[in-house]
Amino acid sequence: MTFDSRYPNQLGKDMLNVTKRITARKRGFAMLAPLWTDNDGRSGDVFYHIYDTTKPGSAAIDKARVKHAIGHARAEVIAHGGVSVTAVTWVMVITWSQMKPRMYFDPSIERTNTFQLIIAYDPLRYQTYAMYIHLDMGWNNEDIERRSMIGYALLKSKEEDTHQLAPSMKSTAFRLHTRVGNSGKLGRYIFKIATGRKDVNYEQKCLSWFANEMKRISLVQYYWGSTLICPCDLRLALMDGRWRFDRKQNYETNYERRCIYESATCGQSTQECCYSPSGSLINTEDGRGGQTFFYHPHSSTLHHKYDVLPKHWCCYLTDNCDSFYRVRPMDHCIGYMPLFTGWFYGDPHIRTLDGFEYTFNGLGEYTLIETRHGEFTLQGRTATVRDENGQETDATVFSAFAARDRDSDTVHVEMTTSRRGLAIFVENENVTDWFTSANATDFQEYICVSVTKTKSTQIEISYATGFSLTIGVTAEQLDVTVGAPSTFKGFTKGLMGVFNDDPTDDLLPPGGNAVPLSNRSSEKTIFKEFGERWRMEKIDSLFYYAPGESYATFARTTFIPRFLEDVLANMTPSQREMAQKTCGNNKECIFDFAVTGKEDAAGATLVTNSKNKDNAETLSNASPNITVDVVFNVTVGEFNSLTLMTDDLDGDTVNVVLESMLPDGATFENNVYTWTPTSMDVVNISFLASDGKGGVAAADVAVNLCNCSGHGECRFDLPADGYELKQTFRIVQCNCSIEWEGAVLRFLLKSFDIFNIPC
Q1: Which residues does the UniProt record annotate as the domain AMOP (predicted)?
Q2: What is residue 24's predicted lDDT score, i.e. its pLDDT?
């Protein structure tokens, strides 16, 4: 096979061109010569096939052939090419089949030669390999006097790279199938014929990194324990304010997925969780799923060096994903608990974390949430509602919120003077310019707290304690949705109530001996005996005060609002009819319409409450569970089956579908998967369970496929040589009988199929 120049005629180089020394410079072209001699072009066959992972073909059998050929070439390169890792993606196989010698005096000679040339290309390292395979060499130089050359001649810049095997020009050239080549196998030789740069040993990089991580495994495990548990599906991830989507994901893989990591952390580690297009948590340890980040992505250099690159080395460039996940484990959402939500909205209406709803129209600054040991504090400031003429009314809305946890910076969010936008302060520093110019999903990180712009008038704040706040402005009123982790049950107090799953004790005033008010108390009683008692002291204020403002500016202790029951009782039929056009029978919406006279304010109250209730219901719906054997050992021609089990904590009916293609010989009915494999084509098995309410869970089954053809024993624990290793599919080895080994060799000599015969 020549490069850079064509043969002078269609019959190729004749024996007169075979010289004692193979050379490229003198001939003017490069060549690969698995056996350069004078063949009879009228006999035998010469054919080739190209296997390219970027163009695998559409048929399943074509894809399988490409996979097998590439896998075989990779295995040969790794085993005998002088490298420990390769990313071969292109292979060309050329076969000279049953070639007779060109005879001038005795054309009756029937001896033939069969041999192959395989060219394998690794684009990642710019390396090219040539493999010479001498299968059945029948010529005999005693009665066929013939010059022959085996080797290669290449031109590299100004230098010539040549190599010829010792049997060249000797009778033993036609007996190479009986000699052990440099590959360690009979008749097989492998050469690296081109390289574009210095070799990079990615396997060594991976294993060296792994060894260093194992030296500090106690520290690594300590940081694992500080990370959160992954939401069980994308639906929950989208609504859990403790997490942020990774906008720089997926450069390692083309697999479509969405990944998240913890929004705020005081430590250096965080958990990554990744979800499939169906919304299920990816839990296969093949590089597609998430991992523990020893360094948070905000420590970009360290994160890239110790978390991102090692995954690339171990999972994408070598087959060491198992080692990687030993020190960067993924989370499987076992024990996940969603945030519990409560919200403050409208003319202020409150829904506590336990689901109790009431209205409180105080004017001033109040404690909304305070944990028992000071881990988290949320405060709210109210202002009077303006009428259409800009005059104050006796209705109030929230105008500012301020919050911090024990170790974090304090974040203060208020309405702008126009009451149509947000002004943001962190540790009393105005950062509103960032918010105004930022794109949606842009974020800023501060000490133990992160701030994310979700809309032009909405912001999400996440604290390392697990609390999250979503603050927005609509119709000149500020609302906040609080997400609280279940770990704080029994440890909160304030206007948000006592977080303990019991709505009857939420109206607990401050004080060690305080007794909760009845949850049937009137709004007037709630105002005087509960709400006003949570008016905060000056020394406790977290708020930002503009020049000329102070705590006293907002301490309107003499203010008496209009109460819900009085407003509703005194509405005229026409007023109620007008309100119901916007509100239906929602009393909070009707109240806001009556006291503000603003349809948009009442509508905002209705929408906010309805949306938050829907979200709370979604969060309370647990994802289904699906149980199945994660490894499926199957044999070609034999019947195999898998049985799936499902359950749901909410008692919802769970439906399971097969996400992957059903291969020939397989069925899936009533949660039972049966399969009698008919070939060694690649098969993926993936199930998706759904509860009909948005909750999903997936199960990927790893297939170990064996085909000993009844002539050996399957070794399901050992992958077969020459096949690309995958987490979810692999061909396994056979312990073949000695008699069958000989039969296979004879078959190979006739079929030249080096890729498809495992036993």
Answers
A1: 198-328
A2: 54
Q: How far apart are CA 524 and CA 530, in angstroms?
A: 10
Query: Hey, which residues does 164 pair with through a beta bridge?
Result: 151
Domain span at 681: 625-751
- 277 in a structural domain: yes
Q: Which residues contact 594 (CB under 8 A, 6 or more apart)?
A: 567, 568, 571, 575, 579
Closest CA to 670 of 644, 638, 647, 701: 644
Nearest to 731, CA basis, from 634, 664, 662: 634
Within a domain: 65: yes
Residue 47 lies in a domain: yes
Which residue, chain included where needed, has tokens 């500080």? Answer: 226
Contacts for 641-645: CB closer than 8 Å, 24+ residues apart? 641/672, 641/673, 641/674, 641/675, 642/672, 642/673, 642/674, 642/685, 642/701, 643/671, 643/672, 643/673, 644/671, 644/672, 644/673, 644/687, 644/699, 645/671
Determine, yes or no, domain membership for 419: yes
Cβ burial of 748 (10 Å; 0-12, 13-18, 19+) is: middle
Q: Which residue among 136, 167, 195 closes a domain?
A: 195
Going by their DSSP bridges, the two strands 696-706 and 729-736 should be labelled as: parallel
Contacts of 145 (CB under 8 A, 6+ apart): none
Contact 23, 33 (CB under 8 A): no
Which residues of the chain fall short of a pLDDT of 50?
Answer: 4-16, 58, 157, 250-254, 740-757, 759
pLDDT value of position 159:
58
Structural domains counted in the chain: 4
* One-letter amino acid of 174: F
Q: What is the rounded distance in angstroms from the CA atom of residue 91 to the CA atom of residue 671?
A: 41
